[in-house]
């Protein structure tokens, strides 16, 4: 298995774990997303499909896979940006597990992003 695939899977897994926590925290209310829980769940269908497809393609080092690696790697910064910079709530996303997810997502996101960029430049 390619190193980039390992980081991609770790990054996507941590992002999905954050999204599970986001359902618990009712993130659609925090971000004022339409559709409540139904819309929130439906929003994640294409994201999950892209994660699975990306894992398959990134292992083959295809352009599509590496592009999804860049997007997913950048996505590793989104929980931090949203919950620590732009939409800070003292009572939400501050548990121990939330902090672990947010900060490890930055690490796996950086690794996925940098490896994807390095490999896509090499194509």
Automatic annotation (TrEMBL):
Q: What is this protein called?
A: Uncharacterized protein
Q: Keywords on this record? A: Membrane, Transmembrane, Transmembrane helix
Per the record, the domain of life is Bacteria
Entry keyword annotation includes Membrane:
yes
Species source reads: Variimorphobacter saccharofermentans
Q: Which Pfam family name is an example for this entry?
A: DUF6713
**Residue stretches spanning the membrane:** 36-56, 62-88, 100-121
